[in-house]
Structures are given as C-alpha cells and as structure tokens.
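Protocol step 4 of 6: record predicted structures for both targets in the notebook before any analysis. Target 1:
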Amino acid sequence: MGGNARGAVSAAAVAVISLSMLVSGCGREAPAAGASDRYTIVTTVGMVSDIVRQVAGDKAQVVGLFGEGVDPHLYKPTRDDVVALMRADVIFYCGLMLEGKMASILAKVGRKKPAWAVTDAIDRDYLLMPEGSEGHADPHVWMDPSAWAQAVQMVADSLSEYDPDNAAYYRQNAEAYLEQIRALERYGREVLATVPPQGRVMITSHDAFRYFGRAYDLTVLGVQGLSTESEAGLQGINSLIDLIGDKDVKAVFVETSVPQKNIRALIEGVAARGRRIEIGGSLFSDAMGPAGTYEGTYVGMLDHNITTVARALGGEAPPRGMQGKLSAHE
C-alpha cells in the first residue's frame, strides 16, 4: 500500500523537479496581505495534517499528501506531491524517518521555506530506541497523546513565528484542541486500566504501538519491525506463537495501512498447535480513517484504538468510544 493512484514519480524525475525548485529560489515569505487571503500549508501524514488544521483554523489552507490507508514507510512521492511542496508557503511533517522516501525532498525544501518536523519539539529522552532500529528513534509518537500534545504546541509556536499578527489566534486554537487531547489521554487511562493483568499483551501487524503500550502499561509486540519494509521472519512468528500459548493471549490486531498476511500466518500457526485466537479488531497505525469521519481525525483515531483494544483484551469501554462518535463496534 506504499503508492497511490496517481502513480509514483521516478527518482530521476524527483531529482530534476527538486533541483528546479531550488534554482527558482522559493524564499521565505510572509503571508499575503489582505484579510481574506489564506496561505498554503502542505503536510504529510494525516495525524500531522489534522493537528495543523486545528491550529491554523481559517488562516490557512492545509493540503495533506497522505490519505486514508497510506503506509508512509513505503510511500513514493509523485510528481503532484513535489509540485505541491514547491508551491507551499509552509510545510509540516512528522520526521524521525517516518517519511523515509521523502526525506531528501523535505530537506531540500526546508532550505528555502519554512519546513518543520513536528517531532522536533519532543524531548529526546522521551523517544524509544528499539533494538534493531539502527539508531533511529521510533517515529510513532502520536500513539501517546501526551507526546502529540507537544507536537500541537510546536505547530502553534511555528505558525506564530511565521505569521506573528495571528499568534494569539493560533495559541487560542491550540489550547482548545489540547483540552480534547487531555480528555483523550484520561479516557485511555481509565478504560485500559480495566484490562485484566493476565490479558495485557497486545500483538499487532507491525511495531507501531510501543508508545501506546508505554502510555497505558501494555506489553506490545509487532510481527514486523518499526518499518513495514522489514520482513517478518519465521523465527519471530514462532516466538509469538509460543508467547500466545504461554500468556493465553485472546486476540491479535490488524492495521488499516498494513497487509494482513503476517497476522493471518500467525493465526494459522496458532491453529496448527490446536489453539484458537481471534482478530480483536483493525487499528489505525500510520494512517487515520476516511476523511470526513470521526475516525478520520487524530482524536477519533486514538479513541477507536483505545476502545477497540480495551474491549478485545477483556476490559470495559463504551462501544461508541469516549464521545459516542465511533462507528459501531461489534
């Protein structure tokens, strides 16, 4: 699921377009004058797009490049993506190598216009460095609302720097949104605390939920590594099958942006040993839900994950989530 319907641009084409962008001298410019004018912000993953929209409000048009179900680890930039970056006034992206195949383009753009990685605001001591990550921090920090709250504040500070005339507006929007994120964090602690001690093991398609596990005291394991480019080895799957038997794990989880084949192989391996394990639900990991839905927002995405995990692992949570807005859960 790494490309999109527009077709991936070749590496050579990206290089040519990027070079022309640099030569054209797209400099740092203040927002256009006039009360009705809006500047353009281009973002990458949906989780970044959503917080930028919340903070920027009606002062900017926000264009997100990665849509529903897109895997940012495998995504290849298209010609349209590069053109959008060239035309942007401001750019926000996740960072921490999440947008791996776009890293060089984002770096070049950042030399000529404001381009911020929202994870730069997060304390380095907070970041997880999993074994086998080759020195790269785990980029999935949005799985912990307390960390993503820092990214929201970073967006407000950055837009206030870019557009100081509207600084108070951005900070007011950020504070209102942070109240929602704090409520989400409280909800997660309350409902996931109801999962019984023997059921607090969460197995997912790839290793995207470590921050989630740390925030809510769950043991989290992925069939694949941090990036979906990594392969799921037979030895690793067999180790998970052993753990499922030892811990009597009741459910595993698939992800909306990752193929299900590895989880299916895990389930088949468990069945071959005479046991049964259910799919506890489909979680949002590297992408949010459909645009225009509650699950297509950051708060809705995490509400869905928290509610789904709590219910599948034997805890108690309202079927429609903390605000009663989720699509019906089985």
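Target 2:
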Amino acid sequence: MGVVQEKSVITVELPQNPYDVVIAPGGLDHLGAWILDHGKQRKLGKKMLLVSNPSVFDLYGQRAIASLEQAGFDVAYHLIPDGEPHKTLASVEGIYDAAYAHRMERSSAIVALGGGIIGDMSGFAAATWLRGIQFIQVPTSLLAMVDASIGGKTGVNHPLGKNLIGAFHQPRLVLIDPQMLDTLPVREFRAGMAEVIKYGVIWDADLFEQLDATADLSEYAAVPVSLLQTILLRSCQAKAIVVSKDEKEAGLRAILNYGHTIGHAIESITGYTAVTHGEAVAMGMVAAGEIAVQLGMWSKALSDRQTALIRKAGLPAHSPAGLDHDQLVTLLQADKKVEDGKVRFILPTGIGTVEIVNEVSADVVRHVLRQIEA
C-alpha cells in the first residue's frame, strides 16, 4: 500500500497543560525538533531517558536518539522485555534506576518509544519519579497511536487485575509517525483495529460505515492509504475530544472503555499471554453487544454487523474455550470501573452511540459468556 503523506495536528484542549497530537509521516527523524517546538510553556531540561523494548529499539531506537541529540538533548535509554507479563512495578523500578543513573531532574523528560505497554509504564514512571516529570509519547503500534498514547492514563498490572495501579499523567507531546506501521506484526495491527472499531461504535458512525465498506481490514497492506489517514485522524480526534471534556473519567470518558470491561477480565484470567489486548477488547465488544441485545438496547442485526466487522479485521469474535465464568464474574467485581459494588458496562444503543449501564445482572453476563465462547 502507499504511505500516509499528510501531516495533521490535533490539540487535546485541557485547562492545564494542553498538548498536541502530531501525525507526521517521517516524523521520527524530527522528534527532537518537534519536542522543542511544542509545549514551550513548560520548562524542559536537557536530560532525556528513552524507554523502549528490544524489538522496537532495534528498528527505531538509534534514529530517535540521533534526532534527540541533534536537538541538543542528553539522552540515555532503558529497555524493557516485550509483552504484557512485564507490565509490572518491577519493570517500572528498572526505569527509576535508569532515571537515577542518568541524574534525571524535575525538568527532565521520559520518551516512550513503543506500544501501549511501554507508554503506560513510561508514563507511570514519569508521574511518580521526583513526584512528576514530563514525558513524550512516540507510539509505534496502531493501538497506541489511536488510543493508548492519548489521554494520560498510565499504569501497570497487578496479578489480580489489569491496570489496577496507575495515575493520570498527560504527555507533553504525542508524535505519531505512520511509517512505523510498516514494520508492525500483523497480529498487532489487528489488535489496533479493535480500538478503531470501538471508536466507530461509540462515537463515529461515519468511520464505522467506512470500515464496513472496506473489503479487508486484517493487515496493514490491505487498508487503502486514504482510509488509514482517516483511521488515524478520526480516532485521535475522538479520543482528544472525549479527554478534553472529561480528563479523569468522571463521566463521558467512561465510554472509551467499551469492550474493555469483559476484555480486561479475559486478559487477566488467561495470564496476559493467550490473547493480545486488542483481541480481548474485540471479545469484550462482542459480549457488550450481546448484553445490549439481551437488555433490548439494540438489535441483533446491529450486534451481528459489529461482529462481522470484528471478524473482517482478523479479530476473534469468540472467547477462548474453557474459561471459568464464575471466576470471570468475580474479576469483573474487582475492575477499576466498579462503583458502589456495581460493574459499569458501556453498552451500544446504535452505531455511534452508547450508554453507561450499572444494572447488568451476573446471570445475564454468564449467559452471554456462554454464548460467545468458542
């Protein structure tokens, strides 16, 4: 396929410390200049700590460092092994050790070069080192580009649940270079498409229709360049608008958790190894759609249409066989989104609209879990 050529800038309009999401083809080689150009209202020192994983660093690490050094920054780097099992406090402690060794100051910044896992951990380290330093997101996966890098949610997993430990800490800048998607593994591209489909269901009916009209969404090479531009721009705009209206999830921002409630429980019960985050979200969206059908909130035809789109993206529409449904329901009760002991579900009422629902019985959840099981 062709490569996205257009540059776009989207501002996350927060009362304190607004920041830009820059979509810039080839932007990685100008990272240092972008950092200097954006967010000048906040003092920025010379010391930078680049955090990445080995596979991403091998591809892009030296280019990022060269760009930062060309802009006058003093750069050290720290690598964390790939994968969700390493999204732990122990890994964050490694970032702290590297920050200490590099003599990071309150004006210093952490640069997250990687997918959502690296971004979440780097942001949490930045939120807590010296009671808060700046950080820059340079997402390298589709999922991180359209979702995880924007909004300031940072954190790590606890053995009993996903992202239970964390903080809100907004980045100084998000730099998205679409050219890096060319090296993204197919499974990870599909994981990102789950979040894109989510935006279509919860917010952007036109985006959903464009996805629905495309023959194949299962790999980067199959997606038309014009649609990829739309995917990046519209997804980032949706996330920026929602975060600007509700920075710390007091209300509206909860809709971004569509598919995540059951999805997180599936990730947890399978030990964060059997399915990717995007695959779990896809399963969670199918489940949420079926719960909405059970509650009479939307039609079976719309639920089936969502499921067909998920399958078109190469994502699973069924959960793994043999999961303990009682344990899954128990995990739901430990979710961050529980309020007054009630699990909060985001349920669709149409394409582009959802509602926040607190009254979903365990029996309905168990019925749907059986329904979507492979």
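Step 5 preliminary note on target 2. The longest strand covers residues 161-168. The chain has a mean pLDDT of 93.
Proceed to step 6 after PI sign-off.
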